[in-house]
Amino acid sequence: MNMKKIIRHYIMENLLFTEDESVLQDSDSFLDGGIIDSTGVMEIILFIEETFGIKVDDNEMLPANLDSVDSLAAFVQRKQAQAVAA
Amino acid sequence: MCGINGIAALSTQTKISEKDVLSMLPALYHRGPDDSGVYLDPNQRIGLGHTRLSIIDLAGGAQPLHNEDRTVWVTFNGEIFNYVELRKNLIKQGHSFHTHSDTEVIVHAYEQYGNNFVQHLNGQFAIALWDGNNQRLLLVRDRAGILPLFYTRQGDRLLFASEIKALLPQLSKAPCISPTALDQIFTFWAARSPNTLFEDIFEVSPGHMLVLENGDLRESIYWDWCFPEQGDYHQSSDADLTDQLYDILADATAIRLRADVPVGAYLSGGLDSSALVALIRRHSDAPLKTFSIGFEEQSLDESIFQNQLIEHLGVENSRILCQNSDIAENFPATIFHAETAILRTAPSPMQQLSGLVRDSGYKVVLTGEGADEVLGGYDLFKEAKIRQFWARHPQSEWRPLLLKALYPYLETSGAQAKAYLNNYYSIGLEKPDQPGFSHLTRWFTTSQCKVFFSQELNARLRDNAVNRLTEQLPPAFDNWHSFNRAQYLEAKTLLSDYLLCSQGDRMLMANSVEGRFPFLDHRVIEFANRLNPRLKMRALNEKYLFKLAMKNHLPRQILERHKQPYRAPDIPAFFSADPPDYVKDLLSEEKLKRYGYFDAKKVSFLLKKASSGSSIAYKDNMALVGVLSTQLCHYFFIENFFSTCSRSTSIPNFSLT
Q1: What is the C-alpha separation between B142 and B521, in angstroms, rounded?
Q2: Considering only CB atoms, which chain B residues are within 8 Å of A13?
Q3: What residue numbers bound the domain in which A59 lies?
Q4: Which of B564, B569, B559, B530 lies closest to B230, judged by CA?
Q5: A57 touches chain B (CB under 8 A)
Q6: In a 3-state reduction of DSSP, which class is residue B421?
């Protein structure tokens, strides 16, 4: 499964409690859609840290990184690339 | 406290049988284990039943009870605390009493004052009164909603009882769960009075009176929470008001110590119960026994504060230690007694606590319930105040940060956290004058649990719970101060519809224990409602005047302690170990589909999340408890309707298969 799919799947099962693909587009803002609240963000961070072996720093907790499936996937890829480069 | 029930004829041809009235009694034995009785009027127009827990006039207080010439009969659950004064007054006016019980003042007060008799009562009560001369029945509930009274029409008969389960034996088929009620529960935490979880079964609302006469049922409001409309608050100095508040509270407590059995008190460790114990100690030399709850889960446990107080006040305290497994084990019994779906397990430890009271040989406890609503203590009131302040300047980045003073755990440092804070707490900010503004955040979060509703249930939902509520507010509501509006909403949704019943009366009565609530004495409420809101909350200092009134009677660390809301473990209660069989069974795909209220697939994801123990959001806890308790209600009252009805004791059978 590709990364976007894994992230989507997680959000759908654990935060939206559904399998219905139509309820979430990869570009949908979690914030604007009222899809998740602040505990939801915590859950997502925990999930991507555990699943993709990265660590999210305090200064990276920005809507630009965490607010949609697209931005999450891009953020994780950047982090993984950084880790390889280092 | 007691259980009451009865059946009244709605048409001239209908005759009531004693057997039918008797059939309702067994379901109420837990409310009144000491005695029971039935009255059937000679024309069989009405039958009244009663199960008794003897507290005042142990020898002479049997019910149903009548007046001098046996034309007025009453079955009564509760206490009339000013019965001593009322009795003297009525004797002066020529009435003769044949007992020393508080019940008897009701029949004579009715003879003297007619329907207005209720205005003379200071107490907690559910009353069914039959006036044989005029062939009229009165059903009345106390002002704040401390004691319950349910009713339903069954053909040409009106059935009424202290609990819904006593109505069931007289129904021809199982009741249905009402979609409107579920919508309200998954918004406000409770069905809104007069609705109950069940279609066509209603409760007499707090402060209401129903009169049945010539087959017509008419409802009137004899009392409601009301607040100054023109800013005409008490004008005295703060010092005078402090003294007045103390005196009213002291008297409200003193008259609630009247009983022919020993009286104990609940001690949570918070300000309200501490103040209550201090008030009792000042007005009674008798040794005082207190009861408290400790939790296995450290973050919920208040034992340290309880111990400080026990030492300061020199009371003898007993404590239960509530473990997760206790809640998992007791939860079906909790729901059987509560007779409704709930979103939190918090009532369950309260049931354990009343069990401790009973085992200690006590029948009566005083509690601090109501102080937050009456005197202005809830965090929600502060939150509303901050959100009002923010709404004046919605662009301000600084104003919403005040919320951190209120909820210290809020993460406000990163841009992400700020974005979520702003997004969540800014709900309704564009219209801070709208009626439900103070409660929108809570209602919005809770409503998110409705995502688990099945398609069938959604299709049956007709209207929106919040809109319906705002339509039903009293006309004066819009003229009240925003703080008073928040108080009203809290009193009429959470206090009377949830705290006093599911978490109050029903958990006390499960173990035949009577609760008494000095802060809900109507004189306290009426006095407090005329206090300027700044005396309830000075800046963000809650219950300001109350703290002044108690300043010389309590240690500083109690007065200054940040309020900790009473909570019990929710999901962890069921999932920290392997969940009990009934949980697996009732949340199975098969049962969810068969009962039909919830989407089985969605619930299966929630279960997976709960079992994995991964970070669980606040709303996930509410959703799981809401789904489980709805399933339990269906199991007890619908699927097993006939065996629930025919049980001769009121102890439920948990053997789920």
Answers
A1: 10
A2: 605, 608-609
A3: 3-10+29-85
A4: B530
A5: no
A6: helix
Q: What is the CATH number of the domain that holds A55?
A: 1.10.1200.10
- Residue B48, strand partner residues: B6, B39
The Cα–Cα gap between B505 and B4 comes to 14
Q: From the list B414, B415, B451, which residue is nearest A17 (CB)?
A: B451
Q: A62–B416: do the CB atoms touch at under 8 Å?
A: yes
- Cα Rg of chain A, angstroms: 12
Q: What CATH code is carried by the domain that includes residue B145?
A: 3.60.20.10
Asked if the model's pLDDT at residue B502 lies above 90, the reply is yes
| CA distance to partner chain B, nearest, from residue A52 (Å) | 17
Judge contact between B160 and B150, C-beta under 8 A.
Answer: yes
Q: What is the spatial distance between Cα A4 and Cα B318, in angstroms, rounded to a whole number?
A: 56
**Measured distance CA(B530)–CA(B446) in Å, rounded:** 32
Same domain for B312 and B348, yes or no, is yes
Number of domains in chain B: 3
The amino acid present at B453, given as its one-letter code, is F
Q: Does residue B600 contact residue B593 with C-beta atoms inside 8 Å?
A: yes
Does A58 touch chain B if contact means CB atoms closer than 8 Å?
yes
Q: ipTM more than 0.85?
A: no
Q: Note whether A19 contacts B: Cβ–Cβ < 8 A.
A: yes
- Domain enclosing residue B330, as ranges: 238-375+492-559
Dihedral sign computed on CA atoms, order B484, B486, B487, B489: positive
B345 vs B340: CA distance, rounded Å:
12
Helix (H) or strand (E) run with residue B640 in it: none
CA B534 from chain centre, in angstroms, equals 27
The mean per-residue pLDDT over the stretch B385-413 comes to: 82
Separation CA B348–CA A48 (nearest Å):
37
Check whether B408 has a pLDDT greater than 90: no
Dihedral angle at the C-alpha atoms of B634, B638, B640, B642, nearest 10 degrees? 160
pLDDT for the residue numbered B647: 66
